[in-house]
Design goal:
Elements (H helix, E strand, L loop, with lengths): L8 E2 L2 H8 L4 E6 L5 H12 L4 E5 L13 E6 L6 E2 L6 H10 L13 H6 L15 H12 L1
Helix pairs in contact: 2-3
């Protein structure tokens, strides 16, 4: 459960880019504030504390390449936004959020212990003392392909 504050903040299309850039992980709902997708989105917003949640009206969706009455992950890493194409269920949305919450290629830190090892995700690990090498470029290409 969230600790305090509203589950989701209503936001204008004009301010969405700046607001979504403030946090590493954001989930945005585009559309009417009613119906199965909105209800499932709000359930996710009330139960997750890793994401920041925003909702905007449907006319903002096209600007972001999204559909009306849909959700998208906006993040400060990898490709963004990522649009949800599944069913309007809390379980589907939360699985989508989890899948898109970890970068494809990371410099390992304790922030990633739970999302990778705790969740049993498949990972390939390269140990190196050098950050910017040809290996890094090869690994980045492999991460995008896989």
């Amino acid at each position: 459960m969230k600790k305090s504050g509203p589950a989701s903040e209503e936001i204008s299309c004009d301010s969405l880019k700046a607001k979504a850039g403030e946090a590493k992980l954001n989930l945005v709902y585009f559309g009417a504030q009613e119906g199965p997708m909105f209800d499932s989105y709000m359930t996710a917003a009330k139960t997750d504390d890793k994401f920041i949640f925003y909702h905007a009206y449907g006319d903002c969706a096209a600007h972001w390449g999204a559909s009306t009455n849909s959700v998208s992950v906006m993040r400060t890493f990898d490709a963004s936004p990522v649009h949800y194409a599944g069913e309007a269920t809390h379980e589907g949305i939360t699985a989508f959020m989890e899948k898109n919450s970890v970068p494809k290629l990371i410099e390992f830190s304790e922030d990633y212990i739970e999302p990778i090892f705790g969740k049993g995700k498949t990972a390939i690990i390269l140990f190196t003392n050098e950050k910017d090498t040809a290996y890094g470029k090869i690994w980045a290409e492999a991460a995008n392909t896989l």
